[in-house]
TrEMBL record:
The chain crosses the membrane at residues 31-53, 74-95, 115-139, 160-187, 193-214. It comes from Steinernema glaseri. This is G_PROTEIN_RECEP_F1_2 domain-containing protein. The keyword Membrane applies. Keywords: Membrane, Transmembrane, Transmembrane helix.
Amino acid sequence: MTPIFVCPVSPISAYFFPFVFPSTIEVNHNLIYWSGIWYASSIMTTGLADMFNTIDRVLAISYPVRYAAQKKRFVLVAFASISAVFGFVFFLMLVERIEPGRYDVMFGRHITYRMSSMIMMVNAGVALFNVPVAVVFFCKLRKFNKSLLRSNKSASTANMVVLHQMILSIVFWIVPTIGNIIALYVFKVNFSVALGPYIVTLLMTYLMACSIMYRRKLVRHRKPHAVQSLWLKATGRNVAPSL
């Protein structure tokens, strides 16, 4: 997720440079393009990463024994797939680069319209695909919470974190992305003209909220186990006191 947080800073700051430093306009085109290409490539992998995260929880709930044996392989497959998509999109944007106008400071003016449309359509497609995946996860989680397996606090914590992430993704990513495509291609209304890059702003809000949530919930969950492990090592006992 780190590139997704860092990359927007350069394009946003580059938009203001031509007005503050007019003599650097040509340099700013390179800044906008190269920072934007990293950002756009990262954006294309966000939905894919969400999908793998949800599938991971579905597999953990549905096939716990097999999942325990195969989870490392699943992580490798997910990482390889995300990296491949990132690299492919990055390469396409290198090929689809065009010469912008002198005062074009939007990243979309530095690549072909075909490439810009593809980015929007693929993001919308991944968002749509994430809907049934999320529904399956909600159903599986509901059954899981009713079963005896809910005594596994570690799995329950991870499941609830992903559940909250899915809710955030629906509110801040899936609904706005699909709504933007419908408004643009069906009703010929471009909200970005009046609101600016609101899709990017909502996506950044979603990613920031997920980072804070993962940090608070998972670190809080691991801390008692770390304290328990240190207590066992210090005392040499096999049973730790209740925390």
